[in-house]
Specification:
Elements: H1 9-18, H2 27-35, H3 49-52, E1 54-59, E2 76-81, H4 82-91, H5 95-98, E3 113-114, E4 116-123, E5 145-152, H6 176-188, E6 193-199, E7 202-203
Antiparallel strand pairs: 1-2, 3-7, 4-5, 4-6
Helix pairs in contact: 1-2
Length: 216
């Protein structure tokens, strides 16, 4: 599932704490204008409908202990856009390195599962610019480039324990930090990669359908 995170959480907290008032010309004043619709974010790179199309890979989550020989039923669907999937191929990241298998009828499709995600910023060359933020009204530095997001799961082949540096020999011993370290090393060696960051895997609690307990 796509991850929903509150945007501008720090500015929103400042807004609440200030009672909706701010010093003229401050970042918070710019944010208040944004909230009122007086300013807007300018989207520099607009993806085509084909680039936005969503697909999925079947991965083994870190939060569920896998069978020694996993089946399709042990895997969960993790979404990826055509845009990011194409970039993954361009970076040379293989299905094996990301823990991908093809989604089929047995793959779990859990609305409360949010896969671990790697975010990669790839520079495209050119000089940095200093546009004005539509959110705060302040200038900021923009480095030309593109950001891509790749889900990932447990993978055994060549993965080393981050603490001991020993090669893992069992899937249930592979943790999220191990795969993060491996992927980070792989991606940072690619041309023009400027930064790599991660979002942790989450299993969120869905809305429960509560019933009374059995009689004792």
């Amino acid at each position: 599932m796509p991850r929903r995170k509150p945007r501008f959480s720090q500015l929103e907290r400042q807004y609440r704490d200030s009672g909706g008032t701010a010093e003229a010309g401050s970042r918070l004043a710019g944010y208040i204008k944004f909230k009122k619709g007086e300013t807007k974010i300018t989207v520099e790179k607009k993806l085509t409908s084909a680039q936005r199309k969503r697909y999925a890979w079947a991965i083994l989550p870190f939060g569920v202990s896998p069978a020694s020989t996993p089946t399709a039923a042990d895997r969960y669907a993790a979404p990826i856009t055509a845009y990011s999937n194409a970039a993954r191929a361009d970076l040379g990241l293989t299905n094996t390195e990301c823990g991908y298998e093809t989604v089929d009828a047995a793959t779990n499709r859990d609305d409360n599962f949010y896969s671990a995600v790697m975010r990669v910023f790839v520079g495209t060359g050119g000089a940095p610019t200093t546009p004005k933020s539509g959110v705060t009204g302040k200038d900021y530095t923009r480095i030309p480039g593109n950001t891509y997001s790749f889900p990932f799961g447990r993978v055994l082949s060549g993965t080393k324990d981050k603490k001991t540096a020993a090669t893992e020999t069992a899937l249930d011993a592979v943790d999220e930090e191990d795969v993060k370290a491996k992927l980070s090393t792989l991606v940072k060696s690619k041309p023009n990669v400027r930064s790599v960051s991660f979002l942790a895997e989450e299993f969120k609690v869905g809305k429960p359908d509560l019933v009374s307990p059995p009689s004792t």
